[in-house]
Design brief:
- By secondary structure, the protein is of the alpha/beta class.
- It contains nine helices and ten strands.
- Strand 9 and strand 10 (226-231) form a beta hairpin.
- Mean pLDDT is 90; it is low at 255-264.
């Protein structure tokens, strides 16, 4: 349902810092895939998500979603059918607005609008039902400014906002990395629950190899702008953390992990 066809990207062109990250990158995502992405620092994991979301342009190649060429679509136009949750909990919400206003903003995404109120009181009960699924008591705090919430609460709210209108594809950019272990586990439980129940196609970057193996039906490893490993459901289930580290070491021709990679 999503194809990256011979995509190339060079950063800082015609400067001393010119660097080609992707050269004819090819990658296909099937409908319903929940793909976990691991790899070295600087491998291009987040950059690949940025190319898909449109936050950075590609130099050449194509990106197709459901056979539609979205290569030239600006980021705001792609946002109608692409959901995204960032590592920083503050990026997915508006801290100066309350929970009700944030949810109304997400609920109206992609819809036509005019000179009407953004908050429709008829939706309050629906929003409370959605918040109740998070099991964080936020349904009783809908008039609370989001900036007053904890990082875990904001990330859970970001996840809900990104999936309230079911996206064609959900991009998760290390969305548990900034959280404590317990909160991270809770957010991953919510993520897996929402992705399964709504049948969302998802792409999740993580440095946590246990999460990469436990969740999803497919795992890819990236290194220096290339996909060097692509494990489908059966092979993924038999993979261990030690296997992944060994595979990475073999690719890097090293006996041990260097400082270019951070695996938890």
């Amino acid at each position: 349902m999503l194809k990256i066809e011979k995509v190339s990207k060079t950063f800082n062109k015609e400067t001393a810092n010119e660097f080609q990250l992707f050269n004819d990158l090819k990658f296909t995502i099937e409908k319903g895939d929940f793909i976990t992405v691991v790899g070295s620092n600087g491998a291009g994991k987040s950059s690949m998500l940025n190319l898909i979301s449109g936050s950075i342009p590609i130099d050449k190649g194509k990106i197709l979603l459901n056979e539609i060429d979205i290569t030239e679509f600006p980021e705001h136009k792609r946002a109608k059918f692409i959901g995204r949750v960032f590592q920083d909990p503050s990026k997915g919400t508006s801290p100066s607005m309350n929970i009700l206003e944030n949810l109304s903003l997400a609920y109206n995404k992609g819809k036509a609008f005019g000179l009407t109120l953004g908050v429709n009181k008829k939706n309050i009960e629906f929003f409370k039902e959605q918040l109740n699924m998070l099991n964080l008591g936020l349904e009783d705090k809908i008039y609370t400014k989001v900036g007053l919430l904890s990082g875990g609460q904001r990330q859970a709210l970001s996840l809900l906002m990104a999936t309230m209108i079911t996206p064609e594809i959900l991009l998760l950019d290390e969305h548990t990395a900034a959280l404590d272990p317990t909160t991270s586990e809770n957010i991953m439980y919510l993520t897996n629950k929402i992705v399964k129940e709504k049948h969302i196609t998802a792409l999740m970057i993580t440095h946590n190899l246990n999460q990469a193996i436990q969740f999803g039906n497919r795992l890819i490893m990236m290194h220096e702008g290339n996909i060097v490993l692509d494990l489908k459901a059966k092979d993924k289930k038999s993979m261990t953390k030690a296997d992944l580290i060994e595979h990475f070491n073999n690719i890097c021709n090293k006996g041990e992990l260097g400082d270019r990679v951070m695996f938890a």
